Amino acid sequence: MKRSSIVSWGIVGALLLAVGVWGLAPAPADAQAKKKLRVVSIFQTPIEEPWDGAIHQALLKAQKELGFEYEWTEKVSGADFERVVREYAEKKYDLIMGDAFGQEQAARRVAKAYPKIKFLFGSGLGPARPNFGVFDNWIHEPAYLCGMIAGKLTKTNVLGVVGGHPVPEVNRLINAFKAGALEVNPKVKLKVAFIGSWFDPPKTKEAALAQIEAGADLLYAERYGVIDAAKDRGKLAFGNLLDQHDLAPDTVITGPVWDMHPLVKFAVESVRRGTFVAMDYAEWTMMQKGGAKLAPFYGWDKKLPKEIIEMVKKREQEILAGLFRVPVDESTPKSD
Length: 336
Known about the structure:
CATH architecture of the largest domain: 3-Layer(aba) Sandwich
Distance between the termini: 102 Å
Order of helices and strands: HHEHEHEHEEHEHEHEHEEHEHH
Helix content: 40-55%
Number of strands: 11
């Protein structure tokens, strides 16, 4: 009995030693390799369209910095949207991003069916636990600054904006632009048109040309196509979402830029650390965290009157310091 106990403990000791040695031994290469994060974006419009383009460019930049795998698909129709999102969820991507809005219900249904996968979608609605985070382009602050420039520069006191749909996200940009203009020029009138599409450059250009005919001498290009109209008629314009200087250097003064990089970087790192939270990521798209800003002036700061540049820089610093809040007005704007 005593000998049997000794033998038993000897066997146990040998096993423990073996386990210890195995634990100290180098792990196989595959086990040692860190799992590479996989991210995909699903876009309803072409990535040429600035809204989705801003997300795409931020992900490309973050991919170089953080070393994750990135895939994207564009021009996904409403009829195919849920199927495409579900296909990527089946492939077990770690983070699925995209633009929901018109496909809110579809995106949320897939997220609910795959609770272990993280979803982060452009949305005008709220997050849904445990895995559906939302974001939006909160660039109303630089839109306000553009309005201030326009209000000072206009000679006709008529400004123009062509938007996609009268949804809160678009409305607050147009209203902020108008509020900035009115702050410095109470005589300003604003022409507003909605094209009923997120990407229809010919229709956008046609609407912008009509505003120019109605007296608008500065235009805010909420949609792609306005700048082309302004260029053709020798008017000035403000870009939107992306730095659009190169589209027409002699036409585009500056414009609100939506820099998704801070948000994308934070989200990817959160997924990697296992700390991702289904929340509204709005603060990451505002000026204080670098998510919104004015595009560079590219020499326009030398062409414009000095007092305009100083005025804009002063207000910009007040926004960054929390001393001035741009009003958020999401009511549907109408032409004056």
